[in-house]
Amino acid sequence: MKNFDSRTYNIEDFREWSERGQLILNPKFQRRQVWTPSAKSFLIDTILRGDPIPKIFIRQNIDPSTKKSIREVVDGQQRLRTILDFIKDGFVISKIH
Questions:
Q1: 58: which strand partners?
Q2: 3-state DSSP call for residue 70?
């Protein structure tokens, strides 16, 4: 049986991993990005209001070709993509939810 640990990461950690190519948002088992602009807006509004959002689950592995640590998003791809898109480019929040 594998051991699991629970850690808290901040958005900056995910942003850095993404920029370094150490974050895999679309492993083979993940569905494609399907959230609507309204759903994305709702998530960002929720975060900005300080309300909780569900946890994001990642699996950490070593890339056999580079021997570097990589992280695959197991659950939370849509949420994490939305957050990273918002901090990178920003987008208009359609309305207060």
A1: 73
A2: strand
Residue of 33, 49, 48, 19 lying closest to 82 (CA atoms): 33
Give tens-digit pLDDT for 1-12: 566 678 888 999
Question: CA 95 to CA 48: how far, in whole Å?
Answer: 13
Neighbours of 88 (CB within 10 A): 11
Give the DSSP H/E element, type plus range, for residue 81.
helix 77-88
Instruction: Give residues with Cβ within 8 angstroms of 78, minimum separation 6.
Output: 33, 34, 35, 39
Whole-angstrom distance, CA of residue 64 vs CA of residue 1? 22
Q: Are strands 23-24 and 69-75 parallel, antiparallel or unpaired?
A: parallel
- Give me the residue label for tokens 């209001």: 49
Residue 6: the pLDDT is: 81
pTM for this predicted structure:
0.81
